[in-house]
Amino acid sequence: MPLVDPVTMSSSIVKSAAAQAAAPQSQAKEKETPAAPALQPVQIKPTPAAQAARHGFPALLAAIFAVRFPALVDDPVSAMLTTLPAVAAIQLAYALVCLPAVGSSSAKPSRKLRPGEKKKSGDGGPNLPVTILVSLLLTTFITPALYVAFVCFGAPAYTYVSHTMLACANLAVLTLFPLFYVHGVDGAAWSAVFSAGAPWDETYGGYIGGFVGAWLGAVPIPLDWDREWQKWPVTIVAGMYGGYLLGRVLGGTVLWGKGGR
């Protein structure tokens, strides 16, 4: 029978006991660590004003674009420059009346409480003036980045600079300002948005529709039709407005809550 060192045996027993004691603790810690909540679709405020405005604002945008379209064909720079403040005001009113600001209780994804855990009281809600200012600044700062993206996709690099920049500004105000208002600078939320992994809602649907519409709007420009409305960037602006309105309506109705991961 082989000899067993009592010191070695006692050390092994102590290590085994310590490992068994640590196992339940590690399992308990894993259970206590909550999983990161998934990005939830943005819900329109349940107030009567918000429910009415969610339908009224798209109709107002469509009416403004229809009225200004002849001016857009005649002088794109002047038309986009004079229309942009009105569009920005409509989008700002839409955000204030209809959308939950980043940091509000309705904008945060809900998490199931653990047994014995109490729901924490809110911190008083978001600071709306700061949220609006930051959203407007981010929308302004991202416009040059959109200009670079337009050039990479074939826009004139050194000519029609004002045309392209104003088209990008319109696109940013339409599609990105509402997203900045509801998501702020949340990296996880923007990662889902840019990777097409966000759930559909009005803000995400408008974003997808606006960018896809602008891309499709470039198709008629090189065609040999010799039409005045084919000049840069009339059809792109028409596509972004039409796509934004269609995506926003679909995202808030039949596609709401679909997708996401």
UniProtKB/TrEMBL annotation:
GO BP, sorted A to Z: GPI anchor biosynthetic process
- Residues annotated as transmembrane: 85-107, 128-158, 164-183, 204-223, 235-256
Q: Which GO terms describe its cellular component?
A: endoplasmic reticulum membrane
Task: State if Nucleotide-binding is listed as a keyword.
Answer: no
Compartments, record wording: Endoplasmic reticulum membrane
Q: Give GO MF terms, alphabetically.
A: transferase activity
Q: How does it sit in the membrane?
A: Multi-pass membrane protein
- Region annotation Disordered: where it falls in the sequence: 20-41, 104-123
What's in the keyword line of the UniProt record? Endoplasmic reticulum, GPI-anchor biosynthesis, Membrane, Transferase, Transmembrane, Transmembrane helix
Q: Which InterPro entries match?
A: GPI_biosynthesis_protein_Pig-F (IPR009580)
Give the Pfam families listed for this entry: PIG-F (PF06699)
Q: In which pathway does it act?
A: Glycolipid biosynthesis; glycosylphosphatidylinositol-anchor biosynthesis
Location, primary (coarse class):
endoplasmic reticulum
Which protein are we looking at? Glycosylphophatidylinositol anchor phosphoethanolamine transferase
